[in-house]
UniProtKB/TrEMBL annotation, chain A:
One of its GO terms (biological process) is lactate metabolic process. The keyword Nucleus does not apply. Keywords: 4Fe-4S, Electron transport, Iron, Iron-sulfur, Metal-binding, Repeat, Transport. One of its GO terms (molecular function) is 4 iron, 4 sulfur cluster binding. InterPro entries: 4Fe4S_Fe-S-bd, 4Fe4S_Fe_S_CS, FTHF_cligase-like_sf, Helical_ferredxn, LUD_dom, LutB/LldF, LutB_C, NagB/RpiA_transferase-like. Residues 314-381 form the 4Fe-4S ferredoxin-type domain. It comes from Micromonospora pattaloongensis. PANTHER family: LACTATE UTILIZATION PROTEIN B. This is L-lactate dehydrogenase complex protein LldF. Signal peptide: none annotated. NCBIfam families: LutB/LldF family L-lactate oxidation iron-sulfur protein.
From TrEMBL, chain B:
One of its GO terms (cellular component) is cytosol. It holds the Pfam family CCG. GO terms for molecular function: oxidoreductase activity. Transmembrane segments: none annotated. Residues 3-83, 132-216 form the Cysteine-rich domain. This is L-lactate dehydrogenase complex protein LldE.
């Protein structure tokens, strides 16, 4: 069953990217932010002597999980249920949203507090709750900014990365109820204080909290949330009811496996040695924390992804966003261009797989295959390999339809596989460009070419073939050297 | 040792001087270079664009052409990366082809690997009195792990002042068909790369891939300012024409 929700791009990537590139402020904000996190990550990764071994271990644990996912999910369900939690299953975003909405309705609450969660963004939970008359309040600072601005997240870890602090101050001034305008400057401390005052009232009054989970331990039925601001801890401990929406790939087999991921994740995501808050809970603990605990396990295209032997490595992802921060494409266009809550390199392989063939088909081409993402990935997802694989799947699926590109690719392959045809084609290309060479004059470059080559010359001059190909030079030299 | 030159299709047609440079460098070091004329293209553009069926005949052609040689050298990081990193994946499912690829791939070298690792040379006796910056292209850097081999070769060139390129490890925005399919993003990346290159005050930017260099050189030429892009092999071979002046002493 294909995934649905906020993971389906509306515009082809090149079109969406062009719109984003026009925003100079956005590019400046992105450049500064991605470079800052990138440098921090580099420093804290370099100080771990067994980083490569940790990456290999992280990949191996996740591959083991993917190889026996049904069994581990059932083990998790049994352990969590035994500990007092109620486990629900959802095939796609609509089912997941319906389950959560019904659970909140049953409590009678019309407002819930939320811990930052990619799964709930993916399924469009806030929108679904709003339709049912339930207000969902984001309590992560960056998610709160995005929510107040009526915007969508543009980064997995830093959803408001596209704003600078001056812009954030303006959003708070206009949209935050009861904000103290006199105290509100664009200083980070002043902005944090305003958010703290706004959120504290929500934490203390909320009866229901909704979270995701970074990890779900099959052995014990434990969920884990890793965060920096303490808002998560508030949501996970104060309200009476806790509902956690968890992708089925979040499983780790044993409690001990967390040792690997709790080293990999903070260094890769925020560039910290250790994150400030790690919350772990196993069902219900009498007298401590929520009295009712629900866990909604969501598929939403993951089973389909799992069926692809090359593409399934995308399910190892622990949502650290290191690949976004090192990606030269993401750095220029930002997250909105990808049209999915999962942007950047991981989004380019995850969104098209979750949603099945057809949708998001321009995303696997949104990369130069430069490989920076693979180097940065803490669970060694070979993103360039999957990008090429998805391009191939796309081409194979369209075999029967006529396409100018395929005709050109076929023709080139036919010419290049035969020595005489190839040599003749090289000669023809050299001779054919002779008029251009005359026009180019002394500079030796072409400034404007007709469509489709105009895509090249719009921003760069084009070189011209010289008077003689290499093989012509070689043949002449061989003749001269032969006595 | 029988050394075969795989000149690559782009160089054969567009940048023959780079192929000539490889021949001259190796002959100057006392090696005989052969050029098997049956060679054409490694199939990288086909494979990376998703046309595996169209890439496979080119892979077979490459393996048949170069199997008899002890070493294959190419002045292109991305074509060598194609052979070493992507051929095994493309050939999977055909046991005979996989075995042939497994035998040939480790003997296929980017020029700096052949010089530094196999032949043990870092000084090829070149002279180039200019300020040069080096852009490590992505596939050479992250797939072949060339490290600083090309820079080590350039540092021994008499008169050459090698200056560090800030953000050098960042992609220039070429990416094969990416340059056409996502031309706007490609141009944005290129603009930043060109600014970094100009900021070094170098008269030349060198790299190990003429396809990336055509993109960078096209951007530099469009923007004006007189910085030239060229393959580092041409510097090592002394095949750069026009003795232009630059900021170097």
């Amino acid at each position: 069953m294909s995934g649905t929700g906020n993971i389906v791009a509306r515009l082809p990537f090149p079109t969406a990217a062009r719109n984003e590139l026009a925003d100079a402020q956005l590019r400046a904000n992105l450049r500064r932010a991605t470079h800052t996190i990138r440098d921090k990550r580099q420093r804290v990764v370099a100080e771990v002597s067994d980083w490569e071994a940790l990456r290999v271990a992280g990949a191996a644990i996740k591959d083991d999980v993917l190889a026996r996912l049904p069994e581990l999910l059932e083990q998790f369900e049994a352990a969590a249920t035994a500990a007092g939690a109620t486990v629900h299953w959802a095939r796609d975003s609509a089912e997941a949203c319906a389950v959560v909405t019904e659970l909140v309705r049953a409590t009678g609450s019309t407002e819930v507090v939320k811990v930052k969660s990619m799964a709930t963004q993916e399924i469009g939970l806030n929108e679904a709750l709003a339709r049912a008359g339930i207000a969902a309040v984001e309590t992560d600072l960056a998610e709160l900014i995005v929510q107040l601005a009526d915007d969508t997240p543009s980064h997995i870890l830093v959803p408001a990365i596209h704003y600078n602090r001056g812009q954030i101050r303006d959003i708070f001034a206009r949209r935050m109820p009861g904000v103290d305008l006199a105290a509100l400057t664009d200083e980070p401390a002043a902005l944090a204080e305003a958010a703290r005052r706004h959120l504290r009232a929500k934490f203390l009054s909320a009866k229901v909290a909704i979270s995701g989970a970074n990890f779900a331990v099959a052995e014990t039925g434990t969920l884990a949330v890793v965060e920096s601001e303490g808002n998560g801890r508030m949501c996970l401990t104060l309200p009476e009811t806790l509902i956690s929406v968890v992708g089925i790939e979040k499983i780790v087999p044993t409690f001990r496996d967390l040792e690997v991921f709790l080293q990999l994740l903070p260094r890769s995501s925020t560039g910290e040695r250790m994150n400030p808050y790690t919350s772990l809970w196993t069902g219900v603990t009498p007298g401590d924390g929520p009295r009712t605990v629900h866990i909604v396990l969501v598929d939403n295209g993951r089973t389909d992804t799992l069926a692809d032997s090359v593409g399934r490595q995308a399910l190892r992802c622990i949502r650290c966003s290191a690949c976004l921060n090192v990606c030269p494409v993401y750095e220029r266009v930002g997250g909105h261009a990808y049209g999915s809550v999962y942007p950047g390199p991981i989004g380019a392989i995850l969104s098209p797989q979750l949603t099945g063939a057809g949708a998001n088909r321009t995303l696997p081409y949104a990369s130069t295959l430069c490989g920076a993402c693979f180097d940065a990935c803490p669970v060694r997802i070979n993103i360039p390999e999957v990008l090429v694989h998805l391009r191939q799947s796309g081409v194979d699926a369209e075999r029967r339809r006529p396409s100018a590109e395929r005709t050109a690719m076929r023709a080139m392959s036919w010419v290049m596989r035969d020595r005489r045809r190839y040599a003749a084609a090289l000669r023809a290309a050299r001779r054919g460009s002779a008029p251009l060479r005359l026009a180019a004059g002394r500079r030796g470059v072409v400034r404007r070419l007709p469509w489709p080559l105009s895509a090249w010359t719009a921003s760069r001059d084009a070189p011209l073939p010289p008077q003689r190909t290499f093989r012509e030079w070689w043949a002449a030299r061989e003749r001269d050297n032969t006595p | 040792m029988r050394i075969a030159l795989f000149v690559t299709c782009v160089n054969d047609l567009m940048f023959p001087r780079t192929g000539q440079a490889v021949v001259r460098i190796l002959e100057r070091l006392g090696h005989r270079v052969e050029f098997p004329e049956a060679q054409s293209c490694c199939g990288q553009m086909h494979a990376n664009s998703g046309y595996r069926a169209e890439a496979l005949p080119l892979l077979r052609g490459f393996v048949d052409t170069f199997a008899p040689y002890d070493a294959v050298v190419a002045p292109s990081g991305s074509c060598v990366a194609m052979v070493r990193e992507s051929y095994p994946r493309l050939a999977a499912g055909d046991a005979e082809l996989s075995a042939a690829v497994a035998a040939l791939a480790p003997r296929t070298y980017e020029l700096s690997e052949l010089l530094v690792d196999v032949l043990g040379v870092t000084d090829v006796g070149a002279h180039f009195p200019h300020r040069v910056t080096y852009h490590p292209t992505c596939h050479g850097l992250r797939m072949l792990r060339l490290g600083d081999r090309p820079q080590r070769l350039l540092r021994t060139v008499r008169g050459l002042e090698l200056v560090e390129l800030p953000g050098g490890e960042e992609c220039c925005g070429f990416g094969g068909t990416f340059a056409m399919k996502n031309a706007d993003v490609s141009a944005a990346m290129l603009a930043d790369k060109c600014a970094a290159i100009r900021g070094t005050g170098a008269g030349y930017v060198a790299a190990a891939d003429n396809s990336c260099l055509a993109h960078i050189g096209g951007g530099l030429s469009r923007g004006g300012g007189g910085v030239s892009a060229l393959h580092y092999a041409e510097i090592l071979a002394g095949l750069v024409d026009g003795g232009k002046t630059d900021g170097a002493a």
